[in-house]
DNA sequence: CGCGTAGTGTAGCCTACATTACACAAAATT
DNA sequence: AATTTTGTGTAATGTAGGCTACACTACGCG
């Protein structure tokens, strides 16, 4: 089994308890993403993480608590990447392309797709849970991009009268692919374009329509 | 098993058996959409539909079979509406607006949103099921619109070098709203535009970028 | 040491279904 | 009406899995 032999790691111990906690969190996240929340039993999680059922209950109240902890623990890096991109600055058209790349890349990860499935499954049972994820993941990104658009508009580097509307559309263009995948699985790809083409066409559409500065000569 | 239908029924009775079947199908569909496939028990379904558990098993093999029957029975009218629209003809820009309206309208129905949830929940467990829905609902619509775009392109009424790509983008613009709703629930609407604005902006974007004939003067 | 706290492994309780069995009632058929 | 066919109500049956209890172990600290 998991021969813990003589645990010689007494020095750099980042707290015994915390390590167990993270192991369980990771195992649970992996399994939930792979097979769905309902389909995974707590015993399975413990089997993968090591430790015991009792400890799991000690650390997280119950199954729902475990899911909550996963979310609380998870880093939704997208808006941070967007922040970094904005901080780096540049020509609007290029920044837009950068945003598209970030969105499509992040949403292409199987983990993200799996997470979408989990959230969707729980939305009916616990709207509060959906809200937490919504505010932690979706809203921050939307806000960043909306501000960016508003800035461009204010400074005359683009013509975007309704930034929120534009952001919604831009999300539609880029994120729809991953959402289809979450719904239908891999077979959805049969009708879907590869990421690079998506990035190119979506930015072309936007720069053209919203007169975003920096577009190559038509 | 099903006796030969030699017996001529009395009145307009659409077959006793068939009526029970439909009642069960409807009850099941409603409940699945409202609360999710897993969360609904067969007894509940019977309670709503009338009839008995035994009959349910007689008609549909088991719970999965019931779900399958719902799908087989369901009319995915979207592509038919699109066909009708195409048959009606018209200026490309106006037809595009019509397509947008059809898509957004269909995907705004709570039933569609619920169905998306159900499909997504089952995709992991049974990819074949996802495939069936995919081919019955999504693919036909995509194909219709792609042909339409290709026609416009061929006849010089638009410039759409890659119709499939364009269709994907158009779906993204229009359908993303419903998909967000499926994932996050109603609270997603906080960041989402109303349907009319979506229709207007999406068609404006497309007619402008793809030079679709019939756009109002810029 | 030797005690106490935390962690482990496991067995079992308990509930919620899916699925089946069966005894009965209502039609349909003759 | 008698018989056959079909549908109904309800009560098993079996199983999965969340959750709890508990006896046991490892280890830190005096």
Brief characterization of the structure:
Two copies of one chain form a homodimer. By secondary structure, chain A is mainly alpha-helical.
* Helix fraction of chain A by DSSP (H/I, runs of at least 4): over 70%
Report mean pLDDT of chain A, rounded to a whole number. Answer: 90
Q: Please give the CATH architecture of the largest domain in chain A.
A: Orthogonal Bundle
Unreliable parts of chain A: 1-13
Q: Tell me the distance between the termini of chain A.
A: 64 Å
The arrangement of helices and strands of chain A along the chain is HHHHHHHHHH
User: What is the domain total for the residues of chain A?
Assistant: 2
Beta strand % of chain A: under 5%
Largest binding interface between chains: A-B, 53 and 54 residues
Q: What is the fold named in CATH at topology level of the largest domain in chain A?
A: Tetracycline Repressor, domain 2
Oligomer: homodimer
Rg value of chain A: 21 Å
The outline of chain A comes out as: elongated
Label the structural class of chain A.
mainly alpha
In DSSP terms (H or I, runs of 4 or more residues), the helix count of chain A works out at 10
Most strands sheet of chain A: none
For the record, the CATH class of the largest domain in chain A is Mainly Alpha
Count of β-strands of chain A: 0
Give a verbal description of the structure.
The structure is a homodimer of 218-residue chains. The first copy, chain A, is an all-alpha fold and 218 residues long. Chain A has two domains: 16-73, Arc Repressor Mutant, subunit A; 78-209, Tetracycline Repressor, domain 2. Chain A contains ten helices and no strands. Chain A has helices at 16-35, 42-49, 53-59, 63-73, 78-88, 92-108, 110-123, 127-154, 163-184, 195-209. In chain A, helix 1 (16-35) crosses helix 2 (42-49), helix 6 packs antiparallel against helix 10 (195-209) and helix 7 packs across helix 9. The N and C termini of chain A lie far apart (64 Å). Chains A and B meet through helix 7, helix 8, helix 9 and helix 10 of A and helix 7, helix 8, helix 9 and helix 10 of B. Chains A, B: Residues 18-78 form the HTH tetR-type domain. Chains A, B: Keywords: DNA-binding. Chains A, B: Residues 41-60 bind DNA. Chains A, B: This is Transcriptional regulator, TetR family. Chains A, B: It holds the Pfam family TetR_N.
């Amino acid at each position: 089994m998991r021969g813990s032999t003589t645990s010689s790691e007494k020095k750099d111990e980042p707290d015994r308890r915390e390590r167990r906690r993270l192991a369980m969190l990771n195992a649970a996240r992996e399994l939930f993403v792979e097979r769905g929340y309902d389909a995974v039993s707590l015993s399975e999680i413990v089997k993968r993480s090591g430790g015991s059922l009792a400890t799991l209950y000690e650390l997280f109240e119950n199954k729902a608590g475990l899911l909550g902890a996963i979310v609380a623990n998870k880093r939704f890096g997208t808006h941070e990447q967007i922040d970094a991109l904005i901080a780096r600055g540049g020509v609007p058209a290029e920044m837009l392309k950068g945003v598209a790349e970030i969105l499509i890349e992040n949403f292409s990860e199987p983990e993200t797709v799996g997470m979408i499935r989990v959230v969707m499954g729980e939305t009916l049972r616990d709207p509060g849970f959906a809200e937490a994820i919504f505010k932690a993941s979706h809203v921050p990104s939307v806000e960043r991009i909306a501000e960016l658009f508003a800035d461009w508009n204010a400074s005359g580097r683009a013509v975007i009268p309704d930034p929120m509307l534009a952001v919604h559309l831009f999300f539609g263009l880029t994120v729809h692919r991953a959402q289809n995948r979450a719904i239908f699985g891999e077979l959805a790809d049969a009708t879907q374009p590869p990421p690079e083409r998506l990035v190119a066409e979506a930015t072309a559409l936007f720069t053209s329509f919203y007169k975003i500065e920096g577009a190559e000569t038509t």
